[in-house]
Write a structure and sequence with these properties.
Length: 516
Amino acid sequence: MEKNIASDASMAPTKIERPRWNKYAFACTMLASMASILLGHDFSVMSGAALFIKDDLKLSDTKIEILMGILNFYSVVGSTLAGRTSDWIGRRYTLIFAAVIFFVGALVMGLAPNYAVLMFGRFVAGVGVGYALMIAPVYTAEVAPASCRGFLTSFPEVFINVGLLIGYISNFAFAKLPEHISWRLMLGAGAVPPIFLAVGALAMPESPRWLVMQGRLGEARRVLAKTSDSEKESEIRLSEIKEAAGIPEHCTDDVVQVSKRNHGEGVWKELLIRPKPSVRRILIAAVGIHFLQQASGINIVALYSPRIFEKAGIKTRNGLLGATVAVGFTKTIFILVATFLLDKIGRRPLLLSSLIGMIISLLGLGFGLTMINQYPEKKLIWAIGLSIATVLSFVASFSIGLGPLAWVYGPEILPLKLRAQGMSLAVAANCIMSGVTTMTFLSLSKAITIGRTFFLFAGVAMLSWIFFYTFLPETRGRTLEEMESLFVKPKDKKERDNPHVELGNGRGTINGHDQP
């Protein structure tokens, strides 16, 4: 039913000249995307720290499972609050707020004397992660020019991988220390990245789209002049943002009075209670891509890679932690490749080919681990090699498509007034699904075996491919203000353009709104 949306090529994207670099936009998005380091570092460092925490605090597998997965549910609190917070105080100060919260959480975890305090630190850090996950892609999408938006808005995923790699290296570096010291240093080291994030955020400009929503046109004009590819594009972007914010085109004042709703009031009603058909489809696409990103099982590999490698035949702690460093390097290399392809190849080809690679890898990993499990008395070198290779090919396939595209696609398709709080819903779906998978993996693998668990994730990845193929249109090269038109079906366009169309309930529509 929705395939016509995804394959509609009738509307050509706005042609914008593409220069080699916009250094100012590049610097802004780099600084904002540093917030994503917080999530990557926390996930990878906990994968190694858990080995020491379990022995030092004498914890059961169930408690470890909860400790590792609960951050995702705590992140929902942060991501839900972040949408309204960023509409109220701005994108830049929300980034600083996220850094402060995570800094406190990392210190509490690093100094935790017992499991209860460790869980409290996990809660505080989780709220900070939720804030960072929501605000980083929103800010980068709003600052980036259309010609290189895919490249720049993939940076949050790049920095998630940088955080993962730092965490894996930190685990390896502290692994030889006494148990009661090693895991505390691993977790406490997470207090360092937020300091750099907060300092960097102070040097960033505010999002031009948020400034326009507050009526601060003069400031927005200056930011757009620096982040656009040309003076003409700067004027076009400002005009489109003003139209989206409901500010008359002829208004040239530096400061104008705007509706109170531009602070985020009434957005939930437009998103969830009475959404337009196009907004409903956009929300399904934005939430769906984040939900399915985590349903693929990527965080299982990030968090439980030591356990997976142990099942595959690697037994020593140094060997396990060293293998996880290889996972971190693989993810980082392929996400860097993806950043240069998003604006050249487009979103859909990368996304669909990424899913194919993930499906093949998950099937191979499931088969390899099943064979190892069925013949424990034999050392099946080929099955061990297959399992290790498919772990690396899985993270490579994820990182070159689905990984960065969830953070690129969501904020760029959501309309201006709905973007921050719409992304908070998408990130909440991401965190909830991540929490469900990470907190059930050990129990599920014991119930149906670890090999069959990865067969299950392969099935989910197949369903994801179908959803993305039928529901997600190509967005490469379009301005943010053009996106909603991609999700308007021909029937809706006809009714919108003809105010005298009679509907089944005896009502017509004018400019997309029901009329008596």
